């Protein structure tokens, strides 16, 4: 037997087996448990470390906030804002209804939950990350910490600090004390910080006197103070009421309000705002519009503006701004006698002027005084624009090379049947037979003449021949917001039932004046922060919205309206001009839109009840039978344009219109449009009746009225004086979709004359201009 060691047979492996294949990449339960424990230890350790390192800081000192300065294009001052309006009150001086309303709106589990709500924070982060909109996951405690101890910046560091401070604060202060602090630091709009200041600003009462309805409205404001002020933004009333209902329903769900009391509540419209004389005249309007523009276009946030320190140079020119005020005073305000004529108390005016080549807004008129009439009339979108919409219809015809129903190209010399209440042919949406001004029948009439005389029967048929959807798109291309209420494809679109603002219309007319080139409107020249940091502004975009031929042919036709039609008062500008008059249904508004090569300006005179804010008819205003676009609006336009452009060279339009567009052709069978009238006798031309502005230009007028509401001083800095509370503006529209502005004719869907009709979406915060880019 050999002494050498012998090989031993291999024994089966004992213990764990070697992991093979896909099992090698799957962690074992020991590894998973170890990782979980390690992560938990790190999380707990991080929590305790953060809790020890983060201390409750001193409160923000709002007393050191800076003002924002608003300037004209030349650097001269318009206004300064930034004063903090706050009166801290104890919880005992805040009504129980107000406390419950805030809790229902912001944090219904405040008294039973901890200082933080991780599930809500995760939900908010998930919605933001997945593009479903930003949502706050903060409790009232966290919001109070942000308002009182920290800054408003959206950073991870700030959120981490907010998290730990909220936890510490919840341990050191009672829930009542935290709620009291939150109610005194929240921002409610109108420069009102805290529930007491808000109660005074919106309802003229103390916080302890707020009932459930008013408290619910103030609670709704916390969510979006810039959007839900229905006086500043009447177009956003539906959204504000929806939020108000949400708050009240929450109070019922929590047992804080009985269903019976809830059922009896009506939306409590707030009062007009009151401001110091530093915001009087046109100043307050400008500041409000500029703020909205910055916020809506995401140039500066509302929170950043609130910190102050911004120097904002606008495109507005002082000489033109003052000229607008003078023109309104001389041709409208001075002819009102509010003591003798109740209708004169309804009269409001608004307007805007845009430089066609640059898109710069050079002047705006918004009302007699910001401390008396709070709503900016240049940017409100709740009055029908009437026949100043008709040029967009003709532009669409040329742009789309449209033809009549019997195949004839539509030109200024195409003949249509202008018979009063003639049924529109070729429209599948039902019978539609709009009335002409004063029910006048014109028989055969060219498109040019129909534009001069603002013949509704012709333009309704034109819209169908072109395609009302194409008319709609052309208006949008020219600059009218796509979200404009009643801007819908139907024959009535031609008659101006849409409710665009004066500024919207000025933007669109500026596109016509600029040979069809549209550019984003410009309100801001420059912004600096703390005197050194320049805030970037969006780059202005331009495009050929419609062909030059379409724009220039429209201009050629509109020159005839000034020379021979309803707008002869505009000849007072002393310059080549093109324009169109318009009057809203039942004379609730009268418009003139016109332009020279240098400036496009739209003027509106509107009727609004100073108590209910309902739209009112203007029959008898200024002692005249009617207020039409060819009267006060055209006269205001003429004086403003003459003074605004004084000293500048007079230039003529450089037009390249449609072939033969300048030729005036008599009615012939060869150019008449199809279809024919039902009654051949109605086609016999009749002697034209009085056009829109006959005997309606105020001229010397009935003489100056009391002068109490004459617009003061443009935007010069004010001196002392008492503040004044003016008429309430609750944002009602009373619009409807019937008839034409110039006609008072039969509409397509019937009028809506109620005080608070549903006006539909106004496109978010576009109650003020301009619209956010890319919208």
TrEMBL record:
Source organism: Streptomyces incanus
- Entry's transmembrane regions: 28-51
Pfam families (UniProt xref) = Transgly (PF00912), Transpeptidase (PF00905)
Q: Where is the composition biased (Gly residues)?
A: 732-748
Q: Where are the stretches annotated Disordered?
A: 1-20, 661-775
Q: Which reaction does it catalyse?
A: Preferential cleavage: (Ac)2-L-Lys-D-Ala-|-D-Ala. Also transpeptidation of peptidyl-alanyl moieties that are N-acyl substituents of D-alanine; [GlcNAc-(1->4)-Mur2Ac(oyl-L-Ala-gamma-D-Glu-L-Lys-D-Ala-D-Ala)](n)-di-trans,octa-cis-undecaprenyl diphosphate + beta-D-GlcNAc-(1->4)-Mur2Ac(oyl-L-Ala-gamma-D-Glu-L-Lys-D-Ala-D-Ala)-di-trans,octa-cis-undecaprenyl diphosphate = [GlcNAc-(1->4)-Mur2Ac(oyl-L-Ala-gamma-D-Glu-L-Lys-D-Ala-D-Ala)](n+1)-di-trans,octa-cis-undecaprenyl diphosphate + di-trans,octa-cis-undecaprenyl diphosphate + H(+)
- Lineage top rank: taxon: Bacteria
Is Membrane among this UniProt entry's keywords?
yes
What name is this protein filed under? Transglycosylase domain-containing protein
- Which GO terms label this protein's molecular function in UniProt? glycosyltransferase activity
Where does the Glycosyl transferase family domain lie?
Answer: 80-251
């Amino acid at each position: 037997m050999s002494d050498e060691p012998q090989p031993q047979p291999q024994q089966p492996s004992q213990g764990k087996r070697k992991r093979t294949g896909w099992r090698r990449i799957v962690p074992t339960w020991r590894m998973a448990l170890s990782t979980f424990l390690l992560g938990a230890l790190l999380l707990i350790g991080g929590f305790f470390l953060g809790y020890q390192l983060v201390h409750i800081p001193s409160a923000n000192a709002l007393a050191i906030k800076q003002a924002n300065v608003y300037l004209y294009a030349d650097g001269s001052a318009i206004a300064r804002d930034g004063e903090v309006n706050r009166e801290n009150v104890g919880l005992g001086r805040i009504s129980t209804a107000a406390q419950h309303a805030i809790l229902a709106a912001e944090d219904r589990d405040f008294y039973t939950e901890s200082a933080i709500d991780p599930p809500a924070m995760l939900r908010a982060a998930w919605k933001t990350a997945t593009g479903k909109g930003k949502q706050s996951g903060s409790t009232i405690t966290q919001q109070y910490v942000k308002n009182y101890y920290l800054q408003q910046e959206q950073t991870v560091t700030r959120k981490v600090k907010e998290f730990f401070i909220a936890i510490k604060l919840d341990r050191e202060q009672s829930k009542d004390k935290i709620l009291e602090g939150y109610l005194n630091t929240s921002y409610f709009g109108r420069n009102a910080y805290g529930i007491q200041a808000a109660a005074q600003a919106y309802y003229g009462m103390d916080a302890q006197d707020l009932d459930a309805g008013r408290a619910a409205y103030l609670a709704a404001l916390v969510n979006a103070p810039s959007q839900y002020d229905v006086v500043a933004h009447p177009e956003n009333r539906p959204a504000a009421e929806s939020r108000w209902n949400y708050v009240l329903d929450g109070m019922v769900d929590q047992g804080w309000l009985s269903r019976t009391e809830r059922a009896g509540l009506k939306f409590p419209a707030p009062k007009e705002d009151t401001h110091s004389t530093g915001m009087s005249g046109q100043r307050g309007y400008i500041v409000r519009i500029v703020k909205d523009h910055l916020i809506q276009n995401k140039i500066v946030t509302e929170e950043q503006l609130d910190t102050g320190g911004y120097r904002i140079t606008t495109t507005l020119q002082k000489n033109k701004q003052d000229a607008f005020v003078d023109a309104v005073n001389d041709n409208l305000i001075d002819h009102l006698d509010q003591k003798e004529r109740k209708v004169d108390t309804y009269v409001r005016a608004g307007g805007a002027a845009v430089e066609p080549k640059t898109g710069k807004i050079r002047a705006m008129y918004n009302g007699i005084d910001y401390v008396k009439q709070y709503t900016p009339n240049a940017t409100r979108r709740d009055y029908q624009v009437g026949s100043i919409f008709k040029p967009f219809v003709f532009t669409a015809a040329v742009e789309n090379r449209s033809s009549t129903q019997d195949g004839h190209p539509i030109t200024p010399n195409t003949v249509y049947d202008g018979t009063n209440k003639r049924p529109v042919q070729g429209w599948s949406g039902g019978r539609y037979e709009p009335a002409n001004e004063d029910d006048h029948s014109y028989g055969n009439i060219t498109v040019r003449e129909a534009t001069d005389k603002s013949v509704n029967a012709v333009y309704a048929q034109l819209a169908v021949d072109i395609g009302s959807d194409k008319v709609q798109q052309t208006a949008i291309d020219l600059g009218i917001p796509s979200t404009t209420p009643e801007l819908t494809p139907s024959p009535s679109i031609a008659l101006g039932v849409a409710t665009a603002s004066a500024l919207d219309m000025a933007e669109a007319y500026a596109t016509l004046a600029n040979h069809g080139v549209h550019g984003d409107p410009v309100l801001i020249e420059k912004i600096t922060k703390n005197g050194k940091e320049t805030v970037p502004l969006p780059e202005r975009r331009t495009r050929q919205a419609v062909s030059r031929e379409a724009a220039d042919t429209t201009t050629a036709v509109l020159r005839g309206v000034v020379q021979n039609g309803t707008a002869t008062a505009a000849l007072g500008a002393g310059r080549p001009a093109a324009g169109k008059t318009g009057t809203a249904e039942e004379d609730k508004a009268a418009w003139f839109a016109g332009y020279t090569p240098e400036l496009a300006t739209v003027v509106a005179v509107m009727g609004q009840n100073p108590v209910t804010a309902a739209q009112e008819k203007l029959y008898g205003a200024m002692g005249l039978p009617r207020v039409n676009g060819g009267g006060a609006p055209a006269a205001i336009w003429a004086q403003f344009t003459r003074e605004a452009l004084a000293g500048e060279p007079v230039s003529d339009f450089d037009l390249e219109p449609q072939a033969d567009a300048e030729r005036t052709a008599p009615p012939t069978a060869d150019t008449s449009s199809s279809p024919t009238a039902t009654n051949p006798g109605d086609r016999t031309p009749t002697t034209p009746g009085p056009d829109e502005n006959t005997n309606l230009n105020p001229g010397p007028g009935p003489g100056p009225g009391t002068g109490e509401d004459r617009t003061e001083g443009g935007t010069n800095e004010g001196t002392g004086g008492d503040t004044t509370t003016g008429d309430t503006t609750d944002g009602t529209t009373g619009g409807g979709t019937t008839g034409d502005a110039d006609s008072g004719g039969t509409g397509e869907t019937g009028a809506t004359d109620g005080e608070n009709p549903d006006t539909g979406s106004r496109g978010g915060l576009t109650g003020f201009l301009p619209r956010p880019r890319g919208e």
